[in-house]
Specification:
Layout (H helix, E strand, L loop, with lengths): L10 E6 L5 H13 L3 E6 L5 E3 L5 E3 L2 E2 H4 L5 H10 L3 H12 L1
Parallel strand pairs: 1-2, 2-5
Antiparallel strand pairs: 3-4
């Protein structure tokens, strides 16, 4: 279970997509966890398997659609909105106006 879903009061989300620089993202995850800072890696696609720019395959903690029901929802809605996703626009409106 991801740290955000387990009730941790403070945490960081880091988004991963295929083609990302593995060392840049995974170093942040590693350092945060060593320091005791809650961090979840989130795939921007429906699968948690990520293929980095150097062909290294790794697993994110969760995917964006599953993280939308957590404390990450508002921030992820903004990211998806910037990407032009209609479902994100609706979620953002519900979050702001409900």
């Amino acid at each position: 279970m991801s740290q955000a879903l387990s009730g941790l009061s403070r945490f960081i989300a880091i988004l991963f997509a295929d083609g990302c620089e593995e060392i840049e993202g995974l170093t942040v995850v590693d350092l945060a966890r060593r320091a005791g800072i809650g961090i979840d890696s989130i795939s921007v696609k429906e699968e948690t398997e990520i293929r980095g720019s150097h062909g290294i395959i790794f697993q994110a903690d969760t995917c964006m659609s599953r993280a939308m029901g957590t404390a990450f929802a508002f921030g992820l809605a903004i990211v998806a909105y910037v990407r032009g996703e209609e479902a994100a626009r609706r979620l953002g409106q519900e979050t702001l106006y409900d």
